[in-house]
Amino acid sequence: MTAIVDLSNDSYNQNDEILFARISNNLARKGYSVNVNALPFDLADRLYQHVSSLSDESFEEAAIGRKNEHIKNVFVRSQKLSWILGDSVTGKLWLSWADALQTYLNQHLFLGLFSFESHYARFSTGDFYARHYDAFKGETSRILSIVVYLNQNWLPADGGELVLYKTDDDKIGLQVTPSFATVVVFLSTELPHEVLRTQRDRYSIAGWFSPNTTTASRVDPPR
Ligand code: OGA
Ligand code: MN
User: Fold this and answer.
1) Ligand 1 atom 6: the closest Cα is on which residue?
2) Is the pLDDT of residue 83 over 90?
3) DSSP track, the chain
4) DSSP string over 33-61
5) Per-residue pLDDT tens for 172-193?
6) Computed from CA positions of residues 35, 49, 80, 141, in that sequence, does the dihedral angle turn out positive or negative?
7) Which residue's CA is the closest to the ligand 1 atom numbered 10?
8) What are 38-78's pLDDT values in tens digits?
9) In this structure, which residues have their CB less than 5 angstroms from ion ligand 2?
10) How far apart are CA 51 and CA 173, in angstroms?
């Protein structure tokens, strides 16, 4: 007799499994993965509805990072962000999707991912984020970065591309259009990246997976 299993509450389905496998293979082969039209559209839609309905007050200014502070002050980032804490249905759906990805990657790549933090980001016209790493080697904090884009009908003239550099020395990089439901995943300490100046309001989610670490608190790296 075949057991009847209710899968309706499963946090991911077969399509997610195909995407997760692709991300896993790409990470193993080259350390990053770019997936256009990849986040389930119903989830991407909900996330867009949610982020675009947030009031200005729900966003905080990103800490103003300064590069080479001792030499000269260079303004490196200007987006506003709102942490996703799982206190809304939409936030919960996103976190459970990220958790399913984390489980899949732990099973297939043995990354030992343990915790996940993420925020909505709004880049207003003129905003950018200068080249940076999400974490530095030797730190046990962020291992894996994920960025998801929520922008319909993005045109080349809108700018705001993510540029992923494959190594420290890479000056050209790979440009990613911040289009609706594109999912980018990369090793946090391996790929420097930047966001080119946007000519239009630009919505994304950025998240980071970290291992279980008992190290005492330390200063957060630039995000
Ligand atoms: C970050 C980041 C990229 C993007 O928040 O650290 O690199 O495209 N974001 O929003
Ligand atoms: Mn980053």
Assistant:
1) 223
2) yes
3) -PPP---TT-S--HHHHHHHHHHHHHHHHHSEEEETT-S-HHHHHHHHHHHHHS-GGG-EEPP--BTTTTT---B-B--EEEE--S-SHHHHHHHHHHHHHHHHHHHHH---EEEEEEEEEEEPTT--EEEE-SS-TT--S--EEEEEE-BSS--GGGB--EEE-SSTT-SS-EEE--BTT-EEEEETTT--EEEPPBSS-EEEEEEEEEE---PPP-PPPP-
4) EEETT-S-HHHHHHHHHHHHHS-GGG-EE
5) 999 999 999 999 999 999 999 9
6) negative
7) 204
8) 999 999 999 999 999 998 888 887 765 544 444 334 567 67
9) 134
10) 29
Q: Is the pTM of this model over 0.90?
A: no
- Ordered by where they begin, the domains of the chain are 12-64+71-210 (2.60.120.620)
Please tell me the distance from the alpha carbon of residue 206 to that of residue 200, in angstroms, as a whole number. Answer: 18
Sign of the dihedral through C-alpha 47, 52, 58, 60: positive
- Closest residue by Cα to atom 9, ligand 1, is 206
User: How many angstroms does the Cα of residue 94 sit away from the middle of ligand 1?
Assistant: 17
Is residue 203 in contact with ligand 1, taking CB distance under 6 Å? Answer: no
